[in-house]
Amino acid sequence: MDVTFASKWVKRKGPLEDKVLTIPENTVGDYLIFQFISNNTNIMQYTVSGETENKIHIDSDGSLFLNDSLDWETRNISAQDENSVTVEGPVNIKITVLDINDNKPIFNQTIYNGVVRQHSRPGRPFMRVFATDKDDPNTPNAKLNYSILTQIPELHQVNLFQIDSETGEISSTPDVYKTVQNRTEFQGKGVRLYRKSGESDVVLRAGTGSVFFFLDPSKHMHYVLFITVKDLEGLSVNSLSDNAKVQIEVKENLWQPPGPVSIKENSTEPHPVFITQVRWNEPGAIYELGEKERYSKFPFMINRDGNIYVTDPLDSEESERYVLVVFAKGKNNENLEQPLEILILVEDINDNPPVCVQDVTTFEVQENEKIGNQIGILQATDMDRKKENSFLKYELLDQEPDQPNARMFMIDPYSANIQISNDNFQKKIVSEYKLKVRVSDMDGEPTGNTNCSVTIKVIDINNKIPVFDKQQYPPLNISEDAAIGTLMCKIRATDADDPGTGSWKIIYKVAEGDPTGMFIVDTDEETNEGYVKINKHLNFEKVSLYHLRIDARNPEPLVFGIDYNSNSSMYLAIGVNNVNEAPEFDSSFYHKVVLENITVGSVILRVHAIDPEGSLVR
Predict the structure, then answer these.
(1) For position 77, what pLDDT does the model report?
(2) pTM, rounded to two decimals
(3) Which segments constitute the Cadherin domain (predicted)?
(4) DSSP readout, 391-413?
């Protein structure tokens, strides 16, 4: 027995009672475990029972020794007198063997082979390495830590792979994608940047924030990782370790969105119709189809093979584009990768004829209108979205009556602007013209066309001015608190031109005496009667009397040589009556912060109010 070691443990002694004892693993030889001491003077010997297998024994002085290595066991110990009669005990003794770090971790393979897909999502494991340690799994001796020693080749000084230190799962790092803002970001790292694909291991994409893809099978298909595993969680210099080699092949990523898909609207093919497909990198994926936005209907489906179909005819007028979202999922319904987005464009066909905005479009022309003057613009629409399908052309087909000329009007074929082509209008002969205009799409080569009706009324020339029935109206008085919209009075001017025409209609306007627009005059379109109303709140203290001049005008211009005069104006005086108004504070809310120890009688704040009439306020 090692005397030094034994002397260390001889201090472990105590009464004969139930006890749990520990010894280090692989301890052999006469190793003193514990010494039991009894106060009973009759005790001559101690005995140990149980499955000792001759690995432990106890001396007559109560010293418990280990003869050989053992697993933990439960033993019974008792004290006996000179007649071998048990006078104390038995007690249960449990011996626990303490594990030591005497086993190194071992990889289950010396060489691993894995596959990573181009543009695979960083951080998503694509393979795993595995090691075991025979030490007690409940101790740090069997707690393993995985790490990457080196990557070959180490292009551009970028680590493309990472390993989970606890699970051994290997994934690509975020550095497989690198976004740069200019060409100098990698200077000093041995990277040459080119704008032309194929001239370097990296490709600079045009535009700000160019993206580099380092995992590209067309550039470098194979990588080798040397990995290590350590016990003691890799935290100690005394950790035991093992190494392995990982060979990684970079393959093309099949999980990529197809380009935009164009589908002609209103297809007559039997549905569903195949339009495109997606593929996951490995067999067994479950495909699901969703919509990026909420559509009124979603006529698409995907089958188990990744084939995508449109299930019903589409209408570009209902939706000219769809964005499909495709998911690839595993057996546990987890996403295998980020979903793909597929753009579906609905191609417009010429399936809508032009439509007249109004059943009958009405314009007016005065007797003295000149050739070239614009009468109006015919309004028509086409529901087709495609420009060539909705570009309209106009053609004048018929004019009734055809007097005094069969071509009194013309229409621009593309702007639909109707103009005068003859200037001999006489209302007494023809008071109204009816035109038939053909509107066609596709620049006059339509699948269908529409005829629009236009009525053009000949109106008397505006050679009469509005005349007021009296130029001076009696003065009025109104309280300053009268509501906006209050009717002050009615005024009237008459016009001798044809009733209902723009030459007859009258517009009243306050021309003088009201610079701030306190009053307004509305017109009855049936009678031309005017209604003088309050437009803003009155204020006696600001203005107590208004002298208004109100003019009457036509919406149509007067003929040359005719001008408005004093007969088209009237005068009205309006007095504002004062109302005793309540005083007003200069603020509706006051706020002041004071200290809690403010002196009694101190002024906290001052408020201020005024009376609109100037009276004293208290």
Answers:
(1) 61
(2) 0.44
(3) 32-107, 108-356, 357-468, 470-585
(4) --EEEEEEEES--S-TTSEEE-T
